[in-house]
Request: fold
Amino acid sequence: MSFDMCIPAPAKVNIGLRVLKKRADGFHNIESIFQTLDFSDELRIHRIPQKKCVVSCAQMLLPRENTLTKTYSAFCAETNIDFGVEIELNKVLPAGGGLGGGSSDGASLLKGLADLAEIQLTDSLADAVAEKVGSDVFFFLHSGFFQKGRGCALVSGRGEIVEAIEPRTDLSFLLVFPGVHSSTKEAYSLVDKAYESGLEVSCPDFSELKRFYYGLIGAWKFANSFTPVLINKYPLIGQALRDVLECGADWADMSGSGATVFGVFKSEADAKKAALKCQKKWKCVLTH
Reply:
């Protein structure tokens, strides 16, 4: 398939993720720092005259309705464009890994559609589409990634409140994939049960996140509300986390609702040594 544009769709990690108790409407507010990584899916997009969205992916079987088709439908509803797209998705990010892969794919497609249609992707248009596709889409659209090639933000509300901040570029990240698939729905259910039992993970106040982020990694007090309940259900996550720390990570946790575990290193040399150790046991990726 020939294509008109090729767009990366980066992974994100959550550096700390506090899940607040369930709201009256059944949703949860979160407090987190999201950061994109140099590890991404790739979308090859070809404009076609028929008004439809056709997606092919060699790495996995996608459901008929997926993040990309939802994004296309939402964009059509907001703009009344008269063309369609064929998309070849090179899927590198693991599905259900807590790295925001599906949401990132959707955000990158939205940017591509706006460029093909020669429409300015305003905040209001971006938010109208993101609202119909998924909460993490807001981050990828408003983090600065499409402007700077790297994104970082304080994220709150259901994920729709995004305050872009300057990303640190001095860190190396070792991603470890325990081979466990946890659905977001299951993860939230487990956190709700923990709250009902009086168990809650201690996390820094939202007002403190930025200060910790720019400070010494050894002083980070970030925590992920999902981590203990997911480790309890899937011990492999706990094993991966222990191994990353034992390999020398300055800080480590699980990303999002799992199950990817990641270590943060201030020394790239130390990160490379850790990757060599970890890859003997785990599937892993070293990135920035």
